[in-house]
Amino acid sequence: MGIFAGGEFAGLGINYLNTASQTKPVVLHGGDIVAASRQYNIAVDQWVDLSTGLNPQAYPVEEIPQEVFTRLPYELPDLCQAAADYYGNEDVMAVSGTQLAIQCLPQCLPQFDILAPKVGYQEHVLHWANSGVNISYYPALEMKVAVECIEQKLMHNPQRHLLIINPNNPTGLKFTPQQIKLWASRLAKGCYVIVDEAFMDMSPQHSVLADLSTNMIVLRSFGKFFGLAGLRLGFVFANQDIRQALQQKTGLWAVNGPAQHVAIKALHDKSWQQQARKDIHKSASLTRDIFSHLFTHILPDRVHHEALFSSYYLPNTLGEQLVDFFAHRGILIRKIAVDEKICLLRTGIIHHQDFDSQERVKQCIQDFIVSQIS
């Protein structure tokens, strides 16, 4: 999720890259320590990165056999079976990160308009816009308002696709599976509900995968819960026609061998998964406590906590000030624009045993509070 600056996407999270021929929208993402290092002249290995929603304690990667690197990475049957067992649905295909699916899906589905959240992971709307369809938006901050808007727009025109980010990154808005399935039943023939469940691993009971309608597509990220974003692995759950169309777009050898090897083991490792959920909850609670010291002095309009990130609603100018203040001290957090006045300050979590990072963030918060008093 990035920060938008003007044009059709104003307020949603996209900047614009000017080229000699045209102006192209470019989404700004978290986790770009290299760019932050250049901007603030702080070595890459000296940063505390709280700009992503990744598990800070990644799944341990042991030595990988040589043949995993030397053979062509045809999809291993064990990979999709492991994914089906873990996620609870057999209609699955693997992709090189859900980002690839997000880029390809607009080319795989009928060219109907799409209804998307006003705030959310903006690669979705970027690629739908590039496909030439009309995009309309529903508010994604409050449940009641969002539901009413979606109901009204689908009643007015059911011949459109519907994008749900569940839970929403960064607002945390989370619809029930029953509500999403109801909306799917109201869409016209050929229209799909696309459900991005990138952050659903910590609350799998809210997933729609247990009862997936034929006109629903679900995206699941491997990298966030397992903390292995660099593997570039995700899964798409959809009917066979959609999976075949997507496979034609992604081509041969869509997932590298090492990613398949690690994922098969991780998806089967129930013991690690159970401990990871406990550790994430503990780390999230600790991180909230650390930032609570800041937000007792700076009162956000509202706060939302997910297991892997927290979002604080602040004036844009204050959000910019905080991001810059933290970055000068080697701590990367995110500012995501809601509109011209309000932003979300999003923080990831610090592992509960990462005492050095905890102390650095505490000191930075204390320094900021003192700077405001003086």
Structure write-up:
- The chain is an alpha/beta fold.
- It is 40% helix and 18% strand.
- It is built from 13 helices and 15 strands.
- The strands form four sheets. A seven-stranded mixed beta sheet has the order 4-10-9-8-7-5-6, with helices on both faces. It has a four-stranded antiparallel beta sheet with strand order 11-12-15-14.
- α5 (123-130) links the parallel β5 and β6.
- α3 packs parallel to α10, α4 packs parallel to α5 (123-130) and α11 (270-295) packs parallel to α13 (355-373).
Read across the widest sheet, the strand sequence of neighbours is 4-10-9-8-7-5-6
Look at the structure and give the mean pLDDT. 92
For the report, how would you describe the main beta sheet?
7 strands, mixed
| Portion in beta strands | 15-25%
Distance between the termini: 34 Å
Shape: globular
Q: Which stretches are poorly predicted, pLDDT < 50 over at least 5 residues? A: 1-26
- The structure class reads alpha/beta
CATH homologous superfamily grouping of one domain: Type I PLP-dependent aspartate aminotransferase-like (Major domain)
Cα radius of gyration in angstroms: 21 Å
CATH topology of one domain: Aspartate Aminotransferase, domain 2
- The CATH level-2 architecture of one domain is identified as 3-Layer(aba) Sandwich
What's the number of helices? 13
Order of helices and strands: EEHEHHEHEHEHEHEEHEHHHEEHEEEH
- Name of the CATH class of one domain: Alpha Beta
